[in-house]
Design brief:
By secondary structure, the chain is mainly beta. The protein has one helix and ten strands; from the N terminus they run βββαβββββββ. The chain has a six-stranded mixed sheet with strand order 2-10-9-4-5-6, with no helix packed on it. A four-stranded antiparallel sheet has the order 1-3-8-7. The termini are far apart.
Length: 114
Amino acid sequence: QVQLVESGGALVEPGGSLTLSCVASRKIFSENHMAWFRQTPGKERELVARISPYGGTTHADSVKGRFTISRDNARNTVYLQMTALTPEDTAIYYCNKFPIPTNWGQGTQVTVSS
């Protein structure tokens, strides 16, 4: 049973923007904090941003001022708006509930390159 579906990843030039989307099952989304994570080969998955059920947000220092997490509770969807992208943002991006994740989805690949 698919519970988390991420989309929106793409190849983008440095300085560009993308918006990622994650549709979650209602069981996962409802009344849970949700978060975006990212992972590159050989590195641990890192927390990028998280959002409470009521919209309170926290962003990692590395993305603060450039990325914005948001959620649409009616659509069981969490978004990650990314601006001023750099090659260091290249990764597979995943969403999940926070702080205790459930099974991970496939993720969506973001590649920042000229």
